[in-house]
Structure formats: C-alpha cells, structure tokens
Amino acid sequence: PSESAPTIWQTVIPYPVPHIESVTMIGPNRLRVMFDQPMATSICNPSLYTVDKGMSHPSSVNYINYYYGVQLQFSQIFPETSEPFLLTLGTMLSAYNIPLAENQYEFYWIADTEPPKVVGAVVLNDQKTVEITFSESLAPDNPSPEQLHNYTLICHSNDPDNSIVSVSHLDDRVQVSLSHKLKFGSSPYQIVVRNVRDLAGNPIIPQYSTTRFYMSNNHDLKNLVVYPNPVRFNDLQCHILNFPAGMRGHIKIYDSSGNLVRSSAIGPFNPEINNIDWIWDLKNNDGKLVSSGIYFYVVEMGGNIARGKIAIIK
Question: pTM of the prediction?
Fold first, then answer.
C-alpha cells in the first residue's frame, strides 16, 4: 500500500569511498593489493593494473578475502632496486559502485624471505583429485613439487586405504590424484606437504604445510549427508555434511507428528577451514534432549530446499 502522506528523510548515510589499504610484495613476481572494503568483481581484470620499471600489466589477478583484496602475478620478476615502484590503477568501483579514491600507489622492492604456505584445498568434480593452493608459486625443480614422497594423505576411518598415485604442478597449485574416489565421513582428510620451495628458494615449514578438507566443495544441496544415521544417544550429536560454501540458510527439524522440534540459522560455510557441517546436539529449541524416533529436516539455502530423515535410536 502507498503512504497516506509522504514522509521526509531524517538521515542520509552515503556509502564510504573505497581506499587502498596496502600494496605488498609477497613473492619475486607477486603483489597483494588490499582495500578497506569489498570491491566489485571487475577488480580481477589485469588491464586495470600497471606497474612501472618495465613490469607492465600482471598476467593474472585473483581476488582474496571476499573481494577485499587481490593478488597480482606478473610474468617477470621484479628488479631489485632501492627506488619505489609505482602501481597505477584504472577505474575501479567498490561493491556499492563507488569509485576508488586514489589511482596510484607506491611500494618498495623487498627480498622474499617468507616460506610458501598451504592456503587451502578443494576436491575437483571427479572426487578423486584434490587441488592444493599455495600462497605463492612453487619452484619447478630442486626439488620438484611433483615428487610423490613430498605429500602424505591422512584419511578418516571411513576411507582408510586411499592413497596418492600422482602429482602435477602449475605455478601456485598442485593437483594430487588419488587411488579411488573420496568418501563421506564425519572427520576431514588431511594432506601434509614437505620439501617444496618457492621461487626464491624458501622451503615450506611445518606450521604452514597441512591442509584439511572434506569430500567435496559443493554448490547446491544435492550432496547433503547425515552422519551417523541412525544416531544413538551415546553419540551425543549428528552431523549434516557437505553444505555449499559461502551461503547462509536455515534448518528446521520436525518430529514424526509434524511438530517443530529445532530451528536454526546456518552458514556461511567454508570448506578451506573444514567448516561444511551443521551439528545437531539432539536437543530441541528448549535445550532438552529429544526422544528416540524418526525426525525430518528441511534445509533452505541459496534458493534451494533439501529434505531428509534422521533416525534416533537408544
């Protein structure tokens, strides 16, 4: 319905103007550019970035921190110099379509003394290949990052016999192929990396060498799994696994009579930090333990709806 009388504005709060927070060398041919707010997806266009002293445009741009920043990779190594480099940026907009305040930023060459870090892993569509992402490009030799003994796969109890059979490497990514498809489980897989180096020769160190992941990085609700199911009271909880990454939603659980037992907001989930499951502690909305029986869950997320059963036995 329309208003009976127009109202007047009390307060107008404009969107803030975005600024560059920092420009930092993170490798011999890489820059990290951070902004003070999320930017539009167009910031991944390499033609928007130009560095002087013969560096020109980056060969690739990848967003990080949910578009609060980007990583630029150049085809050549930054020349060592005591003079500042100048990064010039084209027209850039924030996520709210506000233009970036500045279009030039100075930064200095720094020696790369940081070790490479494992920043995450995702399962590819064939469900038997895992792609590991590092914080920077790996050296292609001395030693080769494609050597099998540089990687150890630690499996959960539902898939104890899986193993790595081959490894391929390109820039800052390594793909490991497994002997068979990954399986669902209540605990994650782990891959430990050792004896690889970045382009400056810095070796990976133990505190940055391990990544954990679940079976898949889903984009819908088709692969939801309840584990264990049936669930016993001495299990104390059950997991609903394999939610899509980056989404928020809602879950409702009903008893066999159709009464609402439990409701909760869920998400966002992030498989790179092993967060893709919602845990039900077998309690209702009043915090009391439910009785044994059949329960039905309804998940709504990203415009999709999924339904399923949970059996609780003594």
Answer: 0.49
